[in-house]
TrEMBL record:
<dbReference type="GO" id="GO:0044183">
    <property type="term" value="F:protein folding chaperone"/>
</dbReference>
<dbReference type="GO" id="GO:0015979">
    <property type="term" value="P:photosynthesis"/>
</dbReference>
<keyword id="KW-0120">Carbon dioxide fixation</keyword>
<protein>
    <submittedName>
        <fullName>Chaperonin-like RBCX protein</fullName>
    </submittedName>
</protein>
<keyword id="KW-0143">Chaperone</keyword>
<dbReference type="InterPro" id="IPR003435">
    <property type="entry name" value="Chaperonin_RcbX"/>
</dbReference>
<dbReference type="InterPro" id="IPR038052">
    <property type="entry name" value="Chaperonin_RbcX_sf"/>
</dbReference>
<feature type="compositionally biased region" description="Low complexity">
    <location>
        <begin position="1"/>
        <end position="19"/>
    </location>
</feature>
<dbReference type="GO" id="GO:0015977">
    <property type="term" value="P:carbon fixation"/>
</dbReference>
<keyword id="KW-0602">Photosynthesis</keyword>
<dbReference type="GO" id="GO:0110102">
    <property type="term" value="P:ribulose bisphosphate carboxylase complex assembly"/>
</dbReference>
<dbReference type="Pfam" id="PF02341">
    <property type="entry name" value="RbcX"/>
</dbReference>
<feature type="region of interest" description="Disordered">
    <location>
        <begin position="1"/>
        <end position="22"/>
    </location>
</feature>
Length: 171
């Protein structure tokens, strides 16, 4: 019977280029990334068995829940921001209070759990948030802008960190 490591290696696609940790790197516990076709290999145990993309998608569900809450609050408070004049008919102070009270009682750390809790208090309001969250991710969120912003933020942070490191070398 093949070991798990052998089976995993056999299931991986052939590497375009492979870098293997050298002896001194291993001693320093520094591993050179193994570059595979299509990108870097991230060990599956890094995020509890999830890929980085799946982990990000899970975190983004909570972000999209927060966005849905803001959108629905704006509608329920009678704000017409981004909606023309049509949102004025959605004014509902009771639903606004329900959302604010639920936010006070249950911090929005996990979008799914937060919505489940709201579902027990006000099913129609929770349903509205679920629908807005789904519509926003499909139609409203600007994925290209997010990617550009993430790359720009990462590059900017990396430059700042490297600059600080270089400055500290000369102190």
């Amino acid at each position: 019977m093949a070991s798990r490591a052998t089976a995993t290696r056999a299931a991986r696609p052939a590497a375009a280029t492979t870098s293997v940790p050298n002896r001194s790197a291993t001693k320093r516990r520094f591993l050179v990334p193994v570059v595979r076709a299509g990108g870097f290999y991230v060990p599956s145990e890094s995020f509890g068995g999830l890929s980085p993309e799946r982990k990000a998608a899970t975190a983004m569900k909570t972000l999209f829940t927060m966005c849905a809450v803001k959108i629905v609050l704006a509608q329920l408070e009678g704000s017409s921001a981004g909606r023309g004049g049509s949102a004025f008919g959605s004014f509902n102070p009771e639903a606004v209070q329900t959302i604010y009270k639920h936010l006070d009682e249950v911090p929005l750390k996990n979008g799914d759990e937060w919505l489940r809790g709201l579902m027990q208090k006000d099913r129609l309001l929770a349903l509205r948030l679920v629908e807005v969250r789904e519509s926003y991710i499909k139609e409203g969120f600007e994925w290209d802008s997010m990617q550009k912003a993430a790359i720009k933020e990462m590059e900017s942070s990396n430059i700042e960190i490297l600059r600080e490191g270089a400055e500290n070398m000369f102190k």
